Amino acid sequence: MFSNAAMFGLMVSLCFGALFVRSALIIRVGSAAHYGGHNAISVAALRQRLAAEYQSTPIAVQLDSRLSAWSHDAPPTSLAPSQAHDAMQLHRACRMENCDRKRMAYWTLVADGRIRPDVRAERTAER
């Protein structure tokens, strides 16, 4: 009645069709559960919040702080613990002997109690 190639093509299309329908249902159910729950926010409220956040911080300050974070020089002021944590992540490939920013971030986190240095390393490390 049907050739082997035709039967194979029909089986493949049915399988892929079933997979597509199944994945679409999973995505639809998953997205409905993720986005439509009790924490739903309207588009207008989201736009208003984003506009307020965008206007609260000037672009020049954002750009300057992001560019200066890549510098290996010590920052002009002391770092807050959250800034020190970000600097340690950003400069994780740097050695403390060569990177003043990482060294300052490290000792800020030590002073804050977030890092407890090894006693052997503390004897040889420079502050």
What's the alpha carbon Rg, rounded to whole Å?
27 Å
Number of helices: 6
* Topology pattern, helix = H, strand = E: HHHHHH
Distance between the termini: 85 Å
Fraction of residues in H or I helices: 55-70%
* Low-confidence region ranges: 18-33
What is the overall shape?
Answer: extended
Q: Report the sheet with the most strands, covering strand number, pairing sense and barrel closure.
A: none
Beta-strand percent range: under 5%
> Can you give the mean pLDDT?
71
Structural class determined from secondary elements = mainly alpha
* Count of β-strands: 0
Explained architecture:
The protein is 68% helix and 0% strand. The protein is mainly alpha-helical. The chain has a domain at 1-38. Helix 4 crosses helix 5 (100-112). The radius of gyration is 27 Å and the shape is extended.
